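User: Can you predict the 3D structure for this chain?
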Amino acid sequence: MRKKAVVLLSGGLDSSTILAYAKNKNFDLYALSFFYGQRHQFELEASKKIAQQFGVIQHKTINIDLRAFGGSALTAEIEVPKGRTEAEMDNEIPITYVPARNTIFLSFALAFAEVIQSEDIFIGVNAVDYSGYPDCRPEYIKAYQTMANMATKTGVEGTTNLTIHTPLIDLKKSEIIKMGLDFGVDYAITSTCYDPNEKGLPCGICDSCVLRLKGFSELGIEDPAEYQ
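Assistant: Here is the predicted structure, written as structure tokens:
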């Protein structure tokens, strides 16, 4: 019997790669995406295409409104930083950090996993390129996994032992792209930009676009996505 994986799927480069990774490991795929009030909600259209490409059994899009709290350039009327150097990106936790986002997403994944009797959650966090987000660090994931196994009925009864898989956490962006290409990810349909235009075309100069383009450049290949 094949194991079930709950995969957090934003529709971006990293999450699409992690979906392909779980597929390659012979998991049955169950994906969760979120409309949380993000300004780059075009990524949700990308998540549907990626889910279809990899034969996801069940793909749920959950509506939560983190605009109620704001505090991020992705959920409030705060300008998305553009044209920054890597040194500037690494200097501080960026304003594109969404307070408690991964904690919230993982909580939904935990509930979904318990209901479908899955012991495996996959999340595409990365702590190498652009490691300013506190909820992308290995120590955070380890702590959450410990908590998760104490927070569910199946965990307390000992019928499941949940594992949060983060195979991208120590990889450079170019290494992530190489992995995804090996697994057949069509990066042309992924959406990474923090501030796309009304047609969903990426800006090419926000932090996320800069790191994505650098990753493709290091591999000596052109990003297949269409830019503004």
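The mean pLDDT is 93. The CA atoms of residues 4 and 28 lie 5 Å apart.
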